[in-house]
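We emphasize that the prediction below concerns an isolated chain of 165 residues; any contacts that depend on oligomerization or on bound cofactors are therefore not represented. The input was used exactly as deposited, without trimming of termini.
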Amino acid sequence: MSEKIHILCVEDEPDVLDVIVRELSVLEDVFPVESAASSDEAREVLADIEAEGGSVGVIFCDHIMPGENGVEFLVSLRKTEQYRDTRKVLLTGQAGLDATVKAVNEAGLAHYIAKPWDADELVLVAREQLSRYVAARKLNPLPYLKHLVMDLVGDTLRDSLKSDR
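Result of the prediction step, given as a token string:
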């Protein structure tokens, strides 16, 4: 049986969160889409996914949220072994240069999407990041094939095989 890989969307504005989840729902037949309105709620969702034996392939996270901001949340995840390979995408219109640099350097940010975004771009970024996640974890790509970008899977696998030598 293949590992269930989830997409997690973290956004404090309910209407925006609904749009993100709706646009990513085209991937849900293979990659379940989960949502959270805060970093605390996101941690609860992560714990539930882990308890079910699943993983999170990509997290789309807003920056400006009450309490812990998105960059701080993503940085904290990078320090946790089980989320080190999780692809992190900042989806925001308000992250300044300092926050973005911190996200890249300390959270291992994989991608930055500015609000407002294009729905096709959002789905493409999700597919690309999920492809990189599957390849980096050296998972069998067949169960996920429908939504992967196979060129990225092949390139990432080749690179990881070279580094294993």
